[in-house]
Design brief:
Keywords: Signal. This protein is α+β, with helices and mostly antiparallel strands. The chain contains two helices and five strands; from the N terminus they run H-E-E-E-E-E-H. The protein has a domain of 63 residues. The strands form two sheets. It has a three-stranded antiparallel sheet, with no helix packed on it. A two-stranded antiparallel sheet has the order 2-3.
Length: 105
């Protein structure tokens, strides 16, 4: 009986260790996507990691930072970003309204 319990405990421990290992391997990279403002203007983002840095300065450019710190830079499109993150983008609050008032003195 003790041997069966020991064998079951060993199998459970091995399964847990494999699960932890696989969970660590399946971590998606950190992704930074540069979006244009409503007028179409684009700024610049410098992405730093432990192993280097990359600058993204084009609309819909992406930088993926892996767990090891490697940075992979790609250029996406508006349709790709909309398809992947449409719900998230729709949940953003509306931009604040700006008014310019002139007074005559």
């Amino acid at each position: 009986m003790k041997a069966a319990i020991r064998r079951h405990g060993l199998a459970s421990g091995a399964a847990f260790a494999a699960l932890v290992f696989l969970a660590g391997c399946s971590t998606p990279p950190d992704r930074i996507i540069l979006l244009p403002d409503p007028e179409g203007k684009v700024g610049k983002v410098i992405v730093h990691s432990a192993t280097g840095e990359q600058t993204i300065d084009k609309a819909y450019a992406e930088a993926d930072v892996t767990k090891g710190g490697a940075i992979e830079k790609t250029v996406g499109s508006q349709s790709t970003v909309q398809a992947r993150y449409g719900e998230l983008l729709a949940a953003r609050p509306p931009r604040p309204m700006t008014f310019t008032i002139f007074f005559s003195v």
